[in-house]
């Protein structure tokens, strides 16, 4: 039996297999609301055969969007539009759906990638001023963010709470809190971006304080039986920055608060980062966090081959494997992986006739008859 396609759980959430579709920003929303593109995109991914589909990074406040075209869940229109998309996907797929909630911090107000991805200054069309733990710009030529005071931090927490309640009403199965890739919560964690001298800066315990308060608030606002977990950057890839030892301490603190898992990525907080990407280059971080925190981990990053993903799970390096760009390139990656590994996946009956003759048991429950 394939380890990758064996059942598992995040908290109390039962999943058919250990393939996770990672959150991937689409930059296709209008005022934070999902539209036709999201219906096409998420409808396609819902049919992929993965155990879990995580919706793209979704802003909890308008100013928390990374670009003006980011998805949001901060108003009734956002909730209604996403509800329509989810209703369509659920009509044809049993896949469990989670949502990644986040805030862009000082990396907010950016162009979409195909327009260069650079900062839109607050005095430019569609731009606004970012916020951060300290008034330090992401890049030396960028406009500095506004340092969050106690009222600003309370507004962020209220945004996470409201978004979590909206997610619950939409029937979302789980929440992933985005504390990675240089966005607001990661900015609090990293000494490169957090130069505060109050209770939210300097020591590791202080730098973890605000992200942990956000976790506690989301956990309390979301139904107890549905899991909440966190995506982290295990290292900044910069000397003197956030590192694996700090990540393990953070994971241990999260576990004590009821966190269900850790989704392990890296980098994003500084343009000085030095990364040497290679197949599975982040997996070692997931393995160590799993071993030293006791939390289930999701590994991600240049995991492209079925045998590679199978080995990661079989050897206990992570409990699940997430794919992002690989699934955009090949939306039926889980089908092909299951075929290679001798496993089964769910597929809609409209597609059962596509099952190759050499994989007669690939689609669970498939049966075809014609006159």
| Shape summary | globular
How many strands in all?
13
Rg, please?
20 Å
Q: Tell me the major beta sheet.
A: 8 strands, parallel, barrel
How much helix is in the residues?
25-40%
The succession of helices and strands, N to C, reads EEEHEEHEEEHEHHEHEHEHEHH
Strand order of the largest sheet: 3-4-6-9-10-11-12-13
Poorly predicted runs of 5 or more residues:
none
Strand content: 5-15%
Contiguous helical run count: 10
Distance between the termini: 36 Å
Instruction: Give the overall average pLDDT.
Output: 97
Structural class based on helices, strands and sheet pairing:
alpha/beta
Describe this structure in words.
The longest helix has 20 residues, at 150-169. It is globular, with a radius of gyration of 20 Å. The chain has helices at residues 36-46, 76-92, 150-169, 184-189, 204-221, 244-256, 283-293, 306-314, 325-329, 333-341; strands at 8-10, 13-15, 19-21, 52-59, 71-72, 96-102, 131-132, 146-147, 174-179, 228-233, 262-265, 297-300, 320-323. Helices cover 32% and strands 15% of the residues. The mean pLDDT is 97. Strand 3, helix 1 (36-46) and strand 4 form a beta-alpha-beta unit.
Provide key terms for this protein.
371 residues; alpha/beta; 8-stranded parallel barrel; two-stranded antiparallel ribbon; 10 helices; 13 strands; 32% helix; globular
């Amino acid at each position: 039996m394939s380890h990758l396609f064996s059942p598992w759980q995040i908290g109390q959430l039962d999943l058919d297999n250990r393939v996770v579709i990672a959150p991937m920003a689409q930059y296709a929303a209008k005022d934070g609301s999902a539209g036709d593109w999201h219906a096409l995109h998420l409808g396609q991914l819902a049919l992929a055969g993965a155990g879990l589909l995580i919706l793209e990074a979704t802003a909890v406040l308008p100013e928390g969007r990374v670009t003006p075209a980011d998805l949001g869940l901060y108003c009734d229109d956002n909730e209604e539009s996403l509800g329509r998309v989810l209703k369509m996907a659920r009509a044809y797929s049993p896949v469990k759906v989670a949502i990644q909630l986040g805030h862009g911090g000082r990396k907010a107000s950016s162009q979409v990638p195909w327009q260069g991805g650079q900062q839109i200054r607050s005095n430019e069309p569609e731009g606004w001023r970012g916020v951060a733990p300290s008034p330090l710009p992401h890049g030396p030529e960028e406009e500095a963010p506004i340092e969050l005071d106690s009222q600003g931090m309370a507004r962020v927490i209220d945004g996470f709470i409201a978004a979590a309640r909206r997610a619950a009403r939409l029937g979302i199965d789980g929440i992933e809190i985005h504390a990675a890739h240089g966005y607001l919560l990661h900015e609090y964690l990293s000494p490169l971006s957090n130069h505060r001298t109050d209770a939210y800066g300097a020591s590791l315990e202080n730098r973890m304080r605000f992200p942990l308060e956000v976790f506690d608030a989301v956990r309390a606002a979301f139904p107890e039986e549905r899991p909440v977990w966190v995506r982290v950057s295990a290292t900044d890839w910069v000397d003197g920055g956030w590192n694996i030892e700090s990540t393990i301490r953070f994971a241990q603190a999260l576990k004590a608060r009821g966190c269900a898992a850790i989704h392990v990525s890296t980098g994003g907080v500084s343009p000085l980062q030095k990364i040497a990407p290679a197949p599975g280059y982040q997996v070692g971080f997931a393995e160590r966090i799993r071993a030293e925190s006791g939390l289930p981990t999701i590994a991600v990053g240049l995991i492209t081959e079925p045998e590679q993903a199978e080995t990661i799970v079989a050897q206990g390096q992570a409990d699940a494997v997430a794919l992002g760009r690989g699934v955009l390139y090949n939306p039926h990656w889980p089908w092909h992986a299951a075929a290679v590994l001798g496993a089964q996946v769910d597929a809609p009956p409209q597609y059962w006739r596509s099952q190759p003759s050499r994989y007669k048991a690939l689609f669970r429950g498939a049966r075809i008859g014609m006159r």
